[in-house]
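User: Here's a chain of 180 residues. Predict its fold as tokens.
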Amino acid sequence: MTLLPEGDLLRSRVVTDLAPALEDALDRRLDGYAVLAPRDALLGSGGTDADDRGVLTFEAGVPTLAYHAGTDRGGPAALADIGPGPYRLELYALDAAHLEVPHETESLRIPPGTAAERLAGDGALAERVRKTADGSDDGAAGALEAFLENEAAIEDIRESARSEAAARAADWGFEDAIEE
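Assistant: Prediction complete.
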């Protein structure tokens, strides 16, 4: 796999549960990657070298590809090679343009939700990732759209703002400056 340029480090720690990190990436709509060192490296077990790490990349918070340096395998097979935690996790933000070429490599791609299921054992998070990936996530964007379509709520906010402005103008002696 072509090396990724160095991103901006967001987090570096040992984790026993990968779900919070995956959820954080999803909530941030992160473009970037995570480097996972296996538990054998943490525990000092023999047979693990510096190349025995896994990489997950994210596109708008969705884990998109997986690669394992020790086995040189990608995709779902790399997730099996990464194995269970604990992990030394390093999470990086990286401009999405740097991820375009790797994300086009089919042999490295993983289905949405797979990393959450296999590495974190979190079915609810996996479902949330799938919804985000297919655009059916009813999160903040959906709530904003629903609010903007509610003309009565918008008019209430406008009327409240007008009333407050008039009251402040009166308090400050600027009633004559306000046009009705």
